[in-house]
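Hello Y.,

Per our agreement to keep a running log of every chain we model this quarter, I'm adding this entry. I've kept the format consistent with earlier entries: sequence first, then predicted structure.
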Amino acid sequence: MKDGSGKMQDAALKALEIINEYEEGICSQDRVAIELADYIKKFGSPIIYERKVVFVYLGFARKVCVAGDWNGWNPHVDIMQRIGITPVFYLVKEFPLDARLEYKFIVNGKRILDPYNPLVVRDKFEPNSELRMPEYKLPEFLRYAPILSGKIHDLSAHFNRIVKVYTPPGYEYAERKYPLIIVNDGSDYLKYAKINRALDFLISAGKIEPLIAVLVDPLDRIREYSLNRDYADFLVYDVLRFVKSRYNIVEDENKYCILGASLGGLYALYTALLYPTIFGCCISQSGAFLKVGELSSFGIVFEHDIFDIVKKYDGRPLKVVLEWGAYECVAEVDFAERNKKVFKLLKAKNFTVYHYSINQGHNWFNWRDSLPQALEVIFGI
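Predicted structure for the entry above:
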C-alpha cells in the first residue's frame, strides 16, 4: 500500500500525462480541467513531479501569469494557458531538483498568492508563495536544536542606532579571545537569516570556532551602502574600536570578517578593500555589484563602482566568500553574472576566493540557507 507521498506522486504523474494528451489533442478540455482541479484541491499547489512543475489557477480571469525568481519577477513572461472555456489555467515549468523558489500569480494585473499553496514565506518585504522542489532541504541548523545557545547584548544606546553583539555559548566563563565578524543589516540577519541559531548550531557541533558577531543596522541603507566611505569609517573607528574595548577579541586581522547580503554584500567587500589591514576576510551574499548609474531611480548613486575599485586595488590579498543564487535577475540586472565577474577580478588579484551558487533567488531565505557554508569556509575548524 502506498503512503500519501506515493499517492501524490502517482497523481502528479497522471496530471502531467493528461496535460500532454490535451496538448496533443487526444484529451478533452473537461477531463484535463477536472484532473488538475481535483489534484490541487486534494494535494495542494503546485503539482510537482521530478523536475516538472505545473502551476494551476482556478477562477475566471482575462489573463493569468506567474512571476517569480526564475523570470526576474517579470509579470509578462510566463503566461498561463486557459483550458478551453473552463476556469482552469495552467503553466508547466522545469527546475533543478533542489531549487527553492518564490512566486506569485498575476491575475488581471493583480499580484496574489497561490490560493492552493500552503507554503508562504515572509521576509521584510511582501509575502510570496514558496516552491520547494523534491530534493530541497531546510538548513541543518533549523532542523536540529543546538546543545547550547549564545547571548545577544544590545549596544544600541551607545551608537544611537541598532547595534547588537552575539557572544558564543560559554563566553562569560572562558578566558580565551575570539574571532570577530561584523554583520551588515544586523537585525535582518537575526530575524530572517537566523544567524544566531546558525552560529549556535555550528559552534555546538564543532563545525566552526566560537566567535563574536557584531550586528549593525544602517540608518539610511541606500545612502550608507552606496559605497559611502563615512559608513566604513564608522564601522572601523566607532563600532570596532568600542567592541574591542568591551569584549575579548583576538588581535589578528585574519580573524576579522565582514558579512552582508545584496547591497550589504557589496558594502562588505568594499569595506574589506578599504581596510585590508583590519579585515582579512569577507563574506558577500548575492552582492549587488552594480555599475555606475544603474538603479539610480532607487536612490543608489556611485561615483565609482566595485569593478573599478577592485581593478585599482593594490593591498594585500584577502580571503573572500562569494555566494549567489542561480535566479538573481533584479530590475533587469543579473547579479549572478555580476558575482562571476567580481570573482574573476578578485582571482586576478591573487585573492583566496571561494564561490558557490544555490538554486534560489535574491532573498533572505537564500542567504539563510547558504550562510552556514560561508561561515564554515571562514571559521571552520
